[in-house]
Amino acid sequence: MSAAKRVQQWATFARTWHIFDCKWQDPYESANIIKKYLMGQHKPIYHPLNDCGDVVVCINSREIALRGDEWRKRAYFHHTGYPGGASWTLAWELHNKDPTMIIKKAVYRAMKGNLQRRHTMQRLFIYHEENVPEDIMKNVSSQIRQSRLVPTRLDHIPEEEVKQYPKVMDYPKDYVLK
C-alpha cells in the first residue's frame, strides 16, 4: 500500500474534530448538519452499526435564532423520573437558564432511531460563547459550514467604510425627522 493510500485510510478511520458556529443559525437545521458528522454519515465507511463518527465543537450557542415566534410558543418537556415530575419549559426560559440546552436537545432529537445516540452525544461539546478551552481547540482541524450566512451588523462596520459608501441622496440642512 502506498503512503498516500495509507494516509487516506488513516484519515477515514480517525476521529476528526470539527467546529461549528451556531451564531444566527436555526438549531433544528444545524442539528441535522451536526448529526451527520457525529454519526459519521459523511464518511465512505458509514454503517448504522459502525461507530465511526467524529467530534463536533459548537460555539456561540447563546446567539441561536428560532423562526417566527417560536421563542414564545415552543415548549420543551422534562421529566425527573419521579411521580409528578413532568414539566414543560418555554424556549426563552430554557435558553435563559442554559444557553446550550436547545442545541443539545435539537441534536439529540435529530439522531432519533440511532441506538447509540447517548454515547454519540458524548462527542458533542457545546459552548455558549467563543471562549473554548485551549486543550479542546488544539484538537480542532476542520470547520463545518453554516447553513445560513451571518450578515455583518451596521454597528460593527468601521465608520470610515460607512462614510465612503456611496449615498443615494443627501438630506437638506433644514430637513427635520418626525
Structure description:
This protein has 178 residues and is α/β, with parallel strands linked by helices. The protein is 33% helix and 15% strand. The protein is built from 8 helices and 6 strands; from the N terminus they run H-E-H-E-H-E-E-H-H-H-E-H-E-H. The protein has helices spanning 3-13, 27-39, 70-73, 91-97, 101-110, 117-120, 134-137, 159-164; strands at 17-21, 55-59, 75-79, 86-90, 124-126, 140-143. The chain has a 4-stranded parallel sheet, with helices on one face. A two-stranded antiparallel ribbon has the order 3-4. Strand 3 and strand 4 form a beta hairpin. The longest helix is centred in the N-terminal third of the chain and has 13 residues, at 27-39. The chain is flat.
How is this structure best summarized?
With about 180 residues, the chain is α/β, with parallel strands linked by helices. It is built from 8 helices and 6 strands, in the order αβαβαββαααβαβα. This is 39S ribosomal protein L13, mitochondrial.
